[in-house]
Amino acid sequence: MTAPVVHLFRLARWGTTLARRRALVGIEDDPNAPTPVKRLVKLARWATFTSKRGEPDYAGAFRAIGPAAIKLGQSLATRPDLVGEEAATNLLSLQDSLPPVPFSEIKASIEAAFGQPIEALFSEIDPEPVGAASIAQVHKAVTTEGRKVAVKVLRPGIREKFAKDIQTYEWAAAHVEAMGGEATRLRPRLTIANFKRWTNSELDLRREAASASELAEEMSGVGGYRIPDIDWDRTNGRVLTIEWIDGVKISRTDELIARGHDLNAIAEKLVISFLTQAISAGFFHADMHQGNLFIEDDGTIVAIDFGIMGRIDRRARQWLAEILYGLTTGNYKRVAEIHFEAQYVPSYHSVGEFATALRAVGEPMRGKPVKELSVGQMLDGLFAITRDFDMQTQPHLLLLQKTMVMVEGIATQLNEDINMWDTSAPYVRSWIRDELGPEAAVAERIKEDTQTLMRLPDLIRRIEERFPPKGGAPEAPPLPEIKLLTDRKERSGGSRLGYLVAILAGAGAMWGASSMGWLG
User: Fold this and answer.
1) pLDDT digit string (tens) for 363-397?
2) 104-155: per-residue pLDDT in tens?
3) DSSP string of 246-313?
């Protein structure tokens, strides 16, 4: 257990780093921030002799703090309700890149992970990494069988570094949430809990390999989108070996046009592939930034880097689909009802009032391309609604929100006139018809009732085990409750030795009386 003084030292060091880059000014001016936090923020600014004037550098501050802070900053980019719109927008630009680890250390890590020389695994490996992020770096290699692969290796000591920092995040979040009010509604402890779960998955490269394999199965029937093959013989907790992709990064629009690709078609395919993952499969690639998407010569989108994945259960997916469809068609009453059914909004509020509030935010967006929308105004409106209607943060939807922002950003760069709602509507409508229509409802009911009937025999067996049938012997009569001397915890003037003497004396007297025939 880390001592509080250690947490305080770390927080003070991080706080001064943030203060120097004016990354805490927004908290200082936020009327909803807890007063003790605002005082500490002001103290950090004074201690660093920093003025409130000037442009805040949120991304630079998190980058200066270290690898765990970079990942935390990317996570907070999805939470404008927690960090403010300006900070969230700036943090979206936070690139997860660090100077590479020397190849001698990478080579030693690979050999230690597999217990054999690197030459036994790869005939070639480029000592210059193709990418170096906060958790791992990637090298191009050729296996001894001649296959081109990408080798991802964890940075030495990164697991221990993350574990220490996350402990302090948890400690700080618990203290902030205990302050009550807006801090409790935003649930910072759950935000850190989700962040911890995501990073723990990223720090085990076997989990990443398994996620890639699972997503490949889920998307096998979707044309124009694929996942690279995993080399399981060269993969473990610290090293991941995956098929090398020779495509063009989706961000290089000029090169894509030069190769004859239809950018509008790619944008629509990207949106539909994301919806297929999130709504149909309930399992989606949650790190869809531009560096993780490639376009092959035939127009196929290839995704890489599966350290962060999201899951949504079936009921939540049904709610999500109905919410998206309700917003695209202007059925705000149904969207409001779903929020109450899902218990996202407390029942003491009015469905009608909530529907009206949604209409005020949704109507300006309908039918317009992204370039004509004020994302800032939209977010301000949405988060005002969450505050007005006492909606708590839904941690299971945070990754989905983050990924939707990424997908929209990429799609807009490919086609600035794309409208996410219009592009999504046909797919969502079809899914709702197939999954929520009358036939689906009947099929689901038959499935549930059949499963219930199949569980009945086991239920009866467990009841019989709990209440076995009576045997041939007569039922024993009730026996009087006898308080034993050894059960008494205290007895004045006595001790355990006294209890033992009394028991032995009593037993001896009984034996003597019996032997003389007195108890005949």
Assistant:
1) 776 666 655 654 445 555 665 677 678 776 665 56
2) 999 999 999 999 999 999 999 999 999 888 889 999 999 999 999 999 999 9
3) -SEETT-HHHHHHTT--HHHHHHHHHHHHHIIIIIISEEES---GGGEEE-TTS-EEE---SSEEE--
Residue 248, φ and ψ in degrees, nearest 5:
-100, 135
Cα angle 89-94-99, degrees, rounded to a multiple of 5: 170
> Is 287 known to be catalytic?
yes
The vertex-132 CA angle with 131 and 138, nearest 5°, equals 55
Dihedrals phi, psi of 224, to nearest 5 degrees: 80, 15
Helix locations, 342-437, DSSP H: 351-362, 375-388, 398-414, 420-436
Q: 254, 250, 255: which is closest to 274 by C-alpha? A: 250
**CA separation for the pair 222, 268 (Å, rounded):** 13
> Which CA distances in Å does 58 have to 38, 54, 71, 95, 196?
17, 12, 13, 12, 21
Query: Taking Cα atoms as reference points, which of 135, 75, 183 lies closest to residue 402?
Result: 75
Residue 512, class by beta-carbon neighbours within 10 Å (0-12 exposed, 13-18 middle, 19+ buried)?
A: exposed
What sign does the dihedral 108-113-119-125 (CA atoms) show? Answer: negative
47's CB contacts (< 8 A; 6+ apart) are 16, 19
The one catalytic residue among 29, 287, 298, 380: 287
Task: Select from 310, 311, 338 the least CA-distant residue to 324.
Answer: 338
With a CB cutoff of 8 Å and minimum separation 6, the contacts of 99 are 132
